[in-house]
Amino acid sequence: MWNGLCFEIEVVDISFRFGVQDDAPQLDRVQSLSIVGLCKSHYTNEEIRALTQHIKPYHTWIAQGMFSGFFVFLAENNGDIVGFSSISGKGILHGMYVLPEYSQRGIGSKLLSGVESTAKQRGTEYISVTASLNSQYFYEKHGYQYLGSASLPLRQGTTIKAISMQKILTCP
Questions:
Q1: Which strand (E) or helix (H) includes residue 85?
Q2: In which band, very low, low, confident or very high, does the pLDDT at 60 lie, cut at 50, 70 and 90?
Q3: Whether residue 158 has pLDDT greater than 70
Q4: For residues 83 and 103, what is the distance between their CA atoms, to the nearest angstrom?
Q5: Exposure of 140 by Cβ count < 10 A (0-12 exposed, 13-18 middle, 19+ buried)?
Q6: How many CB atoms lie within 10 A of CB 166?
Q7: Nearest-angstrom CA–CA distance, 94 and 54
Q8: Largest Cα span, the chain
Q9: Domains in the chain, start-ordered, CATH in brackets?
């Protein structure tokens, strides 16, 4: 509930699980709202609009069969998806999104931990991510190394600034 100053959300029961195809429409919603709500500190409204219009919806990825080798790990509150992370079988982190009203509650950390653990079990040696500028501290806090500046190409020749990061997964 919005009280004029901040969100007040009752977090009753956050559960974590792997995503399935039927989750795709909710993932699209979480992804868009996360970008709009959490990237304001580092990107202009025009860049945010371009980014949300550029991203291919998850239901489209699934319909085109692009999900083979990918897995999605998600967080739910009372059956509603409030965050998710997706990674390819090659160790490329494609998404880490949490609804703004659920941020700063450890959900992103648990999602990342779940993805890393599963990737390690599947034999992945490292995880790479081209991340938004606002997420650099989050990834550094979780052991990711900054590799350098990156550019994320969007539609119509637009690009936005991003960062390239990587984490080597150690043996258990």
A1: strand 80-87
A2: low
A3: yes
A4: 9
A5: middle
A6: 16
A7: 14
A8: 47
A9: 14-124 (3.40.630.30)
